[in-house]
Each structure stands twice: as structure tokens, then as C-alpha cells.
Design brief:
Layout (H helix, E strand, L loop, with lengths): L5 H29 L3 H27 L10 H14 L5 H32 L3 H34 L2
The structure holds fe (ii) ion (2 copies).
One fe (ii) ion binds next to helix 2, helix 4 and helix 5.
Length: 164
């Protein structure tokens, strides 16, 4: 694979993120369905809507960079989702399962935070303000979701899981 410039590298990582978001739009409904805690279920459902928007905005980013809005298989997300599937089949109390779902979801959010953090830094370095703005917004939404999951875990789910 030939990646001669930082711009090319940015396109490559953007294509990875587009694919990651698309994979997530298929995985999140299953996670929402598996969640026992209503707040957790709502958080997954809300993030599913956001995730659909993320895929659209990553398509915009690629087009702004002069490339087709085509993803490139994100093997990392494939692995994270594969591990998430194991939770769906786990024999555990609903509370412990919810704690496991949050752990899996936060790994996903951290992957996205790393991806968008890097991409938005590159967009700033390469002076592409329009792209930088989109990536900054995506980064902020992933961070908000991560914080919401922490809140649900610490305020309810972990406490209930510990009591089972
Ligand atoms: Fe996302
Ligand atoms: Fe996300």
C-alpha cells in the first residue's frame, strides 16, 4: 500500500472510520435490544441515530478531500463488534450483562475518539478548516457518548451488577 503524503494517510484513516461507523449502525440495534437497563437502552438508541449521521459526515469528509465516499474494512471495529457479540450470548444476570455491554461500547467509543482526534489534528495541520470542523464535531459527540456511558455505569449499572 502506497501512502506518499499525510493527505493520503488522512484519506486512508477516514475510509477506515467510514467503514467503522457503518459496521456500528448494524451492531448498535443488537446492543440496544440486549440492554436491560432502560437508560442504557436509550443511550444505545440515541447513539445509533448519531452513528448514522457520523457515517454520512465521514462520506462528506472523503468527498471534501476529493475522494469517493468509499469505506475500507476496519478490522479493529470488526474485532470489537465480534467481542460484543460474545456478550449477547453470555450467561450472566441482566445487570452483569449490562456492565459488559457498557465495557464493550466504551472500547468502541475510545477507538472512535482516537480516530477522530488524530484526523482532526491532521486536518488542522493540513489547514482544511471545513474538514477539521466536521471531525471536531464527531470527536465531541463520541466523547459525550463515552461520558454518558461512564455515568450510567457508575450511577446504576455497576452498583446493581455488584449486588447480584
Ligand atoms: Fe461514531
Ligand atoms: Fe460512537
Amino acid at each position: 500500500m502506497k501512502i506518499p503524503t499525510l493527505n493520503d494517510l488522512m484519506v486512508d484513516v477516514a475510509r477506515d472510520m467510514l467503514d467503522a461507523e457503518k459496521q456500528l449502525t448494524k451492531a448498535l440495534p443488537k446492543m440496544a435490544k440486549a440492554a436491560a437497563n432502560p437508560d442504557l437502552r436509550r443511550a444505545f438508541e440515541k447513539h445509533l441515530e448519531e452513528t448514522r449521521g457520523h457515517a454520512e459526515r465521514m462520506a462528506e469528509v472523503l468527498e471534501a478531500l476529493g475522494h469517493a465516499a468509499r469505506g475500507k474494512k476496519c478490522k479493529a471495529m470488526e474485532g470489537l463488534i465480534e467481542e460484543g457479540k460474545e456478550i449477547l450470548e453470555m450467561e450472566a444476570s441482566p445487570e452483569v450483562k449490562d456492565a459488559a455491554l457498557i465495557a464493550a461500547a466504551q472500547k468502541v467509543e475510545h477507538y472512535e475518539i482516537a480516530g477522530y482526534g488524530t484526523l482532526s489534528t491532521w486536518a488542522a495541520t493540513l489547514e482544511i478548516p471545513r474538514v477539521k470542523k466536521i471531525l471536531g464535531d464527531l470527536l465531541a459527540e463520541e466523547k459525550t457518548t463515552d461520558a454518558l456511558l461512564t455515568e450510567i455505569a457508575e450511577s446504576v449499572v455497576n452498583v446493581e451488577a455488584a449486588a447480584t
